[in-house]
Batch of 2 targets.
Target 1
Amino acid sequence: MRALTSKNCPIMHDAGSSDGIKDGESSRTPSGRLSLHEHLEGDEVPQLLAALRQEMRSGLPVSLSAAEVKKVSTLALQVLVSAKAMAMHRNQPFTVEHPSPEFLRACTDTGLCEYLNVGEFVA
């Protein structure tokens, strides 16, 4: 996997990208899936926001894997919910797939599972 926008960006492309784009520039893998870093908190949240904005400008579906997430702040979850709301407004598919137990716990604790369509939630 390589960084989407910088070495420390909280979104990584899935392995297998063969587009030849240099690190530091935006690109998509053939699957279009992006993986979230293990830690989504603190200084990484503004980078997450910037990376999501860049990806959403393409108009292509955004598919995020949360399988590797070990820590996620409430602010990072709010950024994801906001990005999903913007995608819905644009009729752009936006999914969070394979949420880790830690990601699910954070969503459950904050009541945001429903908004990100992850896990089981009580309506």
Target 2
Amino acid sequence: MSGFKSKVLNYIIGFILAVITVIVIKRDIFAENTVDWNFKGEVTKVKYDVKGCPTVTVRGKKYYLFNVVLMYTINRGDTIIKNKGDLRIKIIRRNTKDTLYTDTNSEGNEIDWHFKNVVTNVVYEERGFVDIMLNGKEYTLDDVIWDISKKIRKGDTLIKSAGNMRIKILRPNTQDTIYLNGRSN
């Protein structure tokens, strides 16, 4: 009887390891593809798994957002936008202009930002976010990571090198130089 139990136990352990391997491989495949996602539309269906990760349906296609850093819940009727190559997902609340951003890369991609451009638009949001447009690309600074008490203005030049968490602000027509310090995860 012990030989039979041993075989059964070995099969069960093998099956469990096989399932775990498949899950890990599928998760890695999904993670690689999230940067290629390109969608914009209303969330027609949303379902959260036991870990709190949502699967959303947009324009009839399902997206499992297991690796998305969510600080907000996504609700049916919200509009979500994900552009190919961008790590962020933009969430616009139903019947409002409230715009939230979340990241498909939980490993602080801010440290990889590199720019030296003039601010063409800046929007301070109530929830501690600052949306900045530089050379046609939008960046969102979060007050959890960045010290945004120093106001960025349209016309400022922002300079940041990859590998550091410091943004240099040069004010136009002055000698003023201000630094925004960030905290890496």
